[in-house]
């Protein structure tokens, strides 16, 4: 038994489902047919007994009304009546107390098959003669002073043949039902497991070909489809995560190469002869510290960008009123950059957005920091907001050196720095606007920029307006 269980456990799922469906159908069909066979057999036997009982009642009534002695049993009309009430394969016999035959009427029935038996009361008996099944009904009678027994017997050959035929029909029907259920179970199991096979194939393809593989053409709307959808979403997230990691490594290796090369050059200089010259030593240490700070800024910027790309928009989202929020931003900006003038323009309608306050603050300060860095001699920064078509627009305008129109499509790329004024003398990593773009897109928002050289730059943050319910 244990070996059978182990063998069944090792079978493919499609075979398990097919065998299970077949066994279940077989048990249901066998139970139903067996119960039907027994009920039908008992009902038919009950009908045969009722038939014999009715015939016996008719004979008793006839004897009571038409005859008054044993001699009258030999009359032609008596025998004709008895013959009329008999059916095929039946016999009626009357015997006296000594077993002497008084009357015998038979149709396709050999009286020698049963022996005469006296009856003290009515009773039914099942008897067999070879392969013939016989049902006998015996009842006592009285004709004047004559006493005896009436025997009515019927050969149940037709009844048994019908039962045997019915049994064979049920067996053959059961076999066909099992075959059909096996084929149906296999087809249903194969159809059911097709999405699972597709999912397994996709996982295998991921293993062999990479994270770009997906499960396709599973849109049944059932649990398997939901599993496939979740798998595809998981693979999307994994692919995005790996792509971000690869981008992080590529960007880091590219951007770190320059400061590391500079550090290496200064250290080699000091190692060879510069450490003995105080001026060279001081210059090299100053340059090295500057590059270390730049390295630190690059790493922090890359980490911030990675967090922005992987964060979820629902993390700690709150309803934010724009007017008081920007008022606080203005106060902080004036504290950080006291040499600048920040002008805040607010519309009368106080709109709201729903997002993480830290993210919105980070986005706005990235834009303000860029405006401060590249304002030039005009140290005025204009901050404003307005609501247009269920959208909140926050704008930050500087009046600095501006950006050439040809460069505008690239300003949100990682590490992109416009050559003019955006050189290594101005601190920065070129990651700020990329971080802002990734963060705002998490909240179905947009960031755009307009600029003109020597006139200034305007950055517009667009976010969906919400109402607090």
UniProtKB/TrEMBL annotation:
GO cellular component term, pick one: plasma membrane
Annotated ranges, domain Histidine kinase: 251-467
SUPFAM superfamilies per the UniProt record, alphabetical: ATPase domain of HSP90 chaperone/DNA topoisomerase II/histidine kinase, HAMP domain-like, Homodimeric domain of signal transducing histidine kinase
Pfam family, one: HAMP
Signal peptide feature range: none
Gene3D superfamilies: 1.10.287.130, 6.10.340.10, Histidine kinase-like ATPase, C-terminal domain
Keyword field contains Nucleus: no
Catalysed reaction, written as an equation: ATP + protein L-histidine = ADP + protein N-phospho-L-histidine
GO molecular function: ATP binding; phosphorelay sensor kinase activity
Segments crossing the lipid bilayer: 12-35, 166-189
Domain HAMP positions: 190-243
SMART domains registered for this protein in UniProt: HAMP (SM00304), HATPase_c (SM00387), HisKA (SM00388)
UniProt topology in membrane: Multi-pass membrane protein
Highest taxon of source: Bacteria
UniProt subcellular location: Cell membrane
Assigned EC number: 2.7.13.3
Principal location listed in the UniProt entry: membrane
Keyword Acetylation: no
Keywords for the protein's UniProt record, in alphabetical order: ATP-binding, Cell membrane, Kinase, Membrane, Nucleotide-binding, Phosphoprotein, Transferase, Transmembrane, Transmembrane helix, Two-component regulatory system
PANTHER family: SENSOR HISTIDINE KINASE ARSS, SENSOR HISTIDINE KINASE CPXA
Protein name as annotated: Signal transduction histidine-protein kinase ArlS
Species name: Paenibacillus albilobatus
